[in-house]
Amino acid sequence: MSVRRSSRLRPGALITASAAGLLAVGLSAVPASAHTPRWSVTCSEVSIDLTAYNGGVTNTVSVTAGDEELLSAETFGREFHQQLTLPEHHAELDVRLVVKAGDGERFSLDETKTAPVCEDDTPAPSPTVSESTPPPAEPTTEAPPATSTPSAAPAPQGGSSDLAETGSSSATPIIAGVAAAALLAGGGILVATRKRRAAQR
Questions:
Q1: Disulfide check for 46: which of 75, 82, 84, 161 has CB 3.0–4.6 Å away?
Q2: What is the value of pTM for the model shown?
């Protein structure tokens, strides 16, 4: 009778041992799939979401952007959620996230992502009046400059008018003088000739 009881107990013990083994394997596999680190980087900020960590140990998280430290080894338990503002940058910026899990190095994380440069979405300022078009000229009350008109030629001295000069020229007195001198010379020669003839007689 005792032999039969032991043979009946063997299958039950095997089943119990198998179930315990499977449970132990399942429990050991749970922490490996429980740690869930998620984080993203934009041109202006870093978003960090760490969930399903072991809350019974001390976990730390740190973030650096280039040479600047944004988060310095901050401790957390089961979860950690935070958004960090990136410094202003005019070139691509390397952002590094380091998570150290207190329950094993295999659950830790060390990753680097690149933050792009933010595009300037501000519209260009509209040109002012002085830049686009010159202001309208103010009306002036100054009198226009007087225009010079050609004055009439002065009348010649001596009372003669333009009509008197029409038939003569400036050489007329000279010619008259020469003619008078020739007449005088001719008269003198004539008188001298008559006196000579009278003396010869």
A1: 84
A2: 0.47
